[in-house]
Structure to design on (883 residues):
């Protein structure tokens, strides 16, 4: 599988036989990884596969027990991030390390010694930023405050920061997580330009189509070990997923044809003021039919969260909003009443709104229905019935837990999400709101959750699927509504939807008046 | 093993407090050994001492059990004093109103009146917090002051013993209440009365409520994560109100037991709440913390603090040391226990979600 080396001379970076153990876990076991000048080498793996550990070793945050790091052919012992920066290794963080109230130039100058001793030299910094952005096509204005910038622009500042320190090897940790498809394309152009200059790039991602599009080489990690080296031409997304998980994976579930029934969720004129005091959702009309999954695509922060919370009864909409569930008006109903009418809700913030970490698995499973006749008799909880129900669901949803009495916080993200899904689907909901159902979840659990969502759809549930993962929306939805700045700007049928088309709509590029159903 | 060590820390704290107490005895020229002996003998030395200790522990246990319920729901109840007074006043009024009911009816009736009185005194700050975002720590403390003034007004005015008015002495106390309302003595010749058993049952009931009923499940869910509880359809505002109301009702029950388990069989005030409650509304909080905010562990914890109170009285009598020393000893134990790491952790564990609860209560109409 290993391709012939396209060049001679020592690689920019070589990590040989890296082993790092933590009490009870082997985070890296005999990992070999190298980056040549002028290439993008992708590090692929699930959460906990050992990608972060390997990068923390590169930046001197951990010391490996075995193995060595070579930079430009020379062994090097990095013991802190500043030494890594001095060695011209740069990191573009997943969560931007920027001060929003300061200008771009001030942010870039943070942590850099000024040529004028104790005084800052912001003009010189601005000048350098202009040069760098011009040379790399980055389009960054050094004098604007960061809070005014879009997410894509902020990411470019992170790249400028690395280039300002003249990084030759760049690590990008999940850089596309917050970008629209167009911004991702722009980013890839920038990254390509940097490799052409002879820089090396380590790209960390779990989005398989991006990995396929950008990488020169791919190294897959699983449970701390390298499970494969490959190149895009010789592999496929399915193949990569298999290497990550260790077994064959269906990336998008089979969706049998189902004739949608009557509209079970009917939303008219939904508007709501968000936390920032501005209108987060603006006059949204939506119908979700029984037996369909309506996907909501959009860059996060375009009103999806607020929309879900209004439908779930957790946020008050503006007057004039009407929501019907199976023909019954629910806009003034409490969350309890909505749930009694058949609404289920899988919240976006799993550990905040979805489950209680200090509660046991079984307590979380009965969180909604603990008061029903099924689980309580004459004022006392019926532990026999609860135990039977929870054991059944844990088995049915393949939740990996030592027992149903285990504290939920000790499970993995994927298993916690399965506990939530088990709870929310066990009632056979009329309407299901699923927000980011697989974010941060391992591929195996995500596959399972997707199957369950489709199964529930086949049984006649009307599902509102909100996700920032465009693949998930495209793979599961019968129709796709695109949200931009609080409005539904288009609703596209599954068969007519393309990644590019939806991406343009997500970025606010549309010429017609906002569509309605 | 580690758990055992961690569990011993509050006991160690108590030990250190006693050492300091011993130093104080030395400082005033008394023998610490004799002091310790007098303390232990006074608290646990014979049947009678044990009976008095149990009676002293009763209001601590009731208030403490209530405190565990409030804390588990992330609300803090400092209103024990006021709730005890409220329960005592309402039960006293019931006994004055229908003094001739047979004991089999009147005893339960005054106890229920105590529950209701304390429940109302708890529900007020509970509802204020839930529906108007009023800080319950402040409102429960304030209500303590209101209740004391209400007690002073009622016992000096409408409820005063007519004999006191006739004689012109005007001691603020009620007439001797109906003997049918008196809590039956359990062991003849001691002060051990039914109230002790009721307190034990109440602690068990608090445990059952928290871990065996849907209502307790909701209270704990709100205490651990108001957001998740809300998203699951649990009514956070109702739960918050209920937690303080139930907590208060146990304090009110303690108030009724203080009146109808007393030798005087009447309610008296010296103008302060402590004069009537013996500060059980505050000491009960310490007992609950010492018991790890678990209703069942609050039983031995209350018994220990009850013993400290009776033992200190004996110490004062035997060694002829000033009464202030007994008070100081009690205070030192409280300070050490509350500031010991484990107790503090426990305290933080159940109060760390208060900010989240406050936020959850502010928005939405759940």
């Amino acid at each position: 599988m290993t391709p012939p080396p396209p060049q001679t001379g020592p690689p920019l970076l070589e990590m040989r036989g890296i082993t790092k153990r933590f009490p009870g876990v082997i985070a890296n076991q005999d990992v070999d990884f190298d980056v040549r000048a002028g290439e993008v080498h992708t590090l692929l793996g699930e959460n906990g596969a050992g990608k972060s550990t390997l990068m923390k070793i590169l930046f001197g945050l951990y010391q490996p027990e075995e193995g060595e790091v070579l930079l430009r052919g020379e062994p090097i012992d990095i013991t802190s991030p500043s030494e890594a920066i001095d060695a011209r290794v740069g990191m573009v963080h997943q969560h931007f390390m920027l001060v929003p109230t300061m200008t771009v130039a001030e942010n870039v100058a943070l942590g850099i010694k000024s040529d004028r001793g104790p005084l800052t030299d912001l003009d010189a910094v601005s000048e350098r930023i202009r040069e760098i952005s011009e040379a790399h096509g980055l389009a960054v204005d050094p004098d604007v405050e960061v809070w005014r910038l879009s997410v894509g622009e902020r990411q470019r500042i992170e790249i400028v920061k690395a280039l300002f320190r003249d990084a030759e090897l760049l690590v990008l940790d999940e850089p596309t997580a917050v970008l629209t498809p167009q911004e991702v394309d722009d980013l890839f152009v920038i990254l390509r330009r940097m490799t052409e200059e002879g820089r090396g790039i380590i790209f960390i991602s779990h989005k398989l189509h991006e990995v396929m599009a950008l990488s020169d080489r791919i190294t897959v990690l699983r449970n701390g070990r390298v499970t494969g080296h490959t190149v895009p031409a010789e592999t496929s997304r399915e193949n990569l997923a298999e290497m990550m998980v260790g077994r064959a994976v269906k990336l998008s579930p089979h969706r049998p044809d189902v004739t949608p029934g009557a509209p079970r969720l009917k939303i008219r004129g939904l508007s709501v003021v968000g936390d920032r005091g501005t209108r987060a959702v603006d006059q949204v009309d939506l119908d979700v039919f029984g037996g369909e999954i309506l996907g909501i695509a959009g860059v996060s922060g375009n009103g999806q969260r607020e929309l879900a919370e209004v439908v779930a009864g957790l946020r008050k909409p503006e007057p004039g909003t009407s929501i019907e569930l199976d023909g019954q008006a629910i806009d003034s109903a409490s969350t309890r009443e909505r749930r009694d009418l058949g609404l289920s809700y899988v919240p976006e913030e799993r550990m905040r709104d979805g489950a209680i970490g200090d509660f046991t698995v079984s307590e979380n499973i009965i969180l909604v229905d603990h008061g029903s006749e099924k689980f309580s008799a004459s004022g006392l909880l019926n532990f026999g019935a609860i135990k039977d129900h929870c054991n059944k669901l844990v088995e049915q949803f393949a939740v990996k837990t030592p027992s149903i009495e285990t504290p939920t916080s000790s499970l993995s993200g994927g298993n916690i999400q399965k506990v939530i899904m088990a709870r929310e689907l066990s009632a056979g909901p009329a309407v299901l709101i699923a927000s980011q159902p697989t974010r941060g979840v391992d591929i195996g659990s995500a596959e399972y959750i997707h199957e369950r969502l489709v199964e529930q759809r086949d049984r006649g549930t009307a599902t509102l699927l909100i996700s920032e993962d465009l693949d998930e929306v495209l793979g599961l939805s019968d129709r796709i509504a695109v949200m931009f700045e609080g409005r539904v700007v288009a609703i596209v049928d599954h068969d007519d939807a393309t990644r590019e088309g939806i991406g343009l709509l997500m970025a606010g590029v549309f010429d017609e008046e906002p569509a309605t159903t | 093993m580690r758990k055992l060590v961690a569990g011993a820390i509050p006991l160690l704290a108590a030990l250190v407090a006693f050492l300091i107490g011993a130093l104080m005895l030395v400082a005033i020229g008394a023998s610490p050994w004799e002091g310790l002996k007098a303390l232990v003998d006074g608290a646990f030395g014979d049947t009678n001492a044990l009976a008095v200790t149990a009676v002293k522990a009763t209001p601590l246990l009731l208030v403490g059990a209530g405190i565990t319920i409030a804390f588990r729901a992330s609300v803090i109840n400092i209103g024990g004093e006021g709730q005890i007074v409220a329960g005592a006043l309402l039960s006293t009024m019931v006994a004055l109103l229908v003094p001739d009911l047979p004991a089999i009816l009147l005893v339960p009736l005054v106890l229920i009146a105590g529950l209701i009185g304390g429940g109302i005194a708890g529900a007020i700050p509970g509802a204020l917090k839930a529906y108007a975002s009023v800080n319950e720590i402040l409102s429960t403390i304030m209500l303590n002051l209101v209740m004391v003034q209400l007690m002073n007004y009622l016992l000096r005015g409408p409820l005063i013993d007519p004999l006191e008015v006739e004689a012109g002495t005007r001691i603020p106390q009620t007439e001797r209440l109906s003997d049918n309302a008196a809590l039956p003595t359990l062991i003849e010749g001691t002060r051990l009365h039914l109230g002790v058993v009721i307190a034990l049952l109440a602690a068990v009931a608090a445990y059952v409520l928290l871990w065996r009923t849907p209502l307790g499940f909701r209270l704990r869910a709100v205490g651990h994560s108001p957001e998740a509880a809300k998203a699951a359809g649990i009514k956070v505002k109702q739960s918050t109100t209920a937690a303080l109301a139930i907590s208060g009702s146990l304090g009110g029950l303690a108030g009724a037991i203080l009146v109808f388990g007393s030798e005087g069989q009447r309610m008296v005030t010296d103008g302060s709440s402590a004069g009537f409650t013996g500060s059980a509304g505050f000491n009960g909080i310490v007992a609950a913390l010492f018991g790890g905010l678990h209703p069942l562990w609050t039983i031995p914890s209350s018994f220990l603090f009850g013993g400290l109170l009776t033992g200190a009285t004996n110490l004062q009598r035997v060694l002829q040391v000033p009464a202030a020393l007994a008070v100081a000893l009690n205070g030192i134990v409280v300070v050490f226990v509350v500031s010991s790491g484990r107790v503090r952790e426990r305290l933080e564990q159940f109060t760390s979600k208060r900010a989240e609860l406050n936020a959850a209560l502010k928005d939405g109409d759940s």
